[in-house]
Amino acid sequence: MTFVPDNFTVWMEIPVTDLDKAISFYNDVFKTELKLVTDMGPNHIAMFTTNKQDGIAGHLYPGKPAGDGSGPTVHIACPDTLEETMERFAKAGGEVVSDPIAIPAGRFAYCIDPDGNSIGLFAA
């Protein structure tokens, strides 16, 4: 039997070297307010929140990023247009490394956050 779940990705974790700086970066880029959680696991984490209790999201955590964009790419939904999010990403200290790429579901761009994590900005 072949495994075909509703969602293959169930969570994301993005390692960062400075949690406070990363929270500020991701809040600015994605026009959101990550929720600092201090009572789960060995470290504080910053949760991306969704509008549904069972929405698929993730968190930032103090860790060792792969650096230089060589790790896996995490794609995150843009709060507005792809171009506006790309502009905020670069202005906040990240690097946009591709032009927009069209796919059947929408468009995305590859970026590298200030810690060197590979981040995809996705707009449906």
UniProtKB/TrEMBL annotation:
InterPro entries from the UniProt entry: Anthracycline_SecMetBiosynth (IPR052164), Glyas_Bleomycin-R_OHBP_Dase (IPR029068), Glyas_Fos-R_dOase_dom (IPR004360), VOC_core (IPR037523)
Residue ranges constituting the VOC domain according to the UniProt record: 8-124
Taxonomic superkingdom: Bacteria
CDD domains listed in its UniProt record: SgaA_N_like (cd07247)
Cited PANTHER family: GLYOXALASE-RELATED, VOC DOMAIN-CONTAINING PROTEIN
Name of the protein described by the UniProt record: VOC family protein
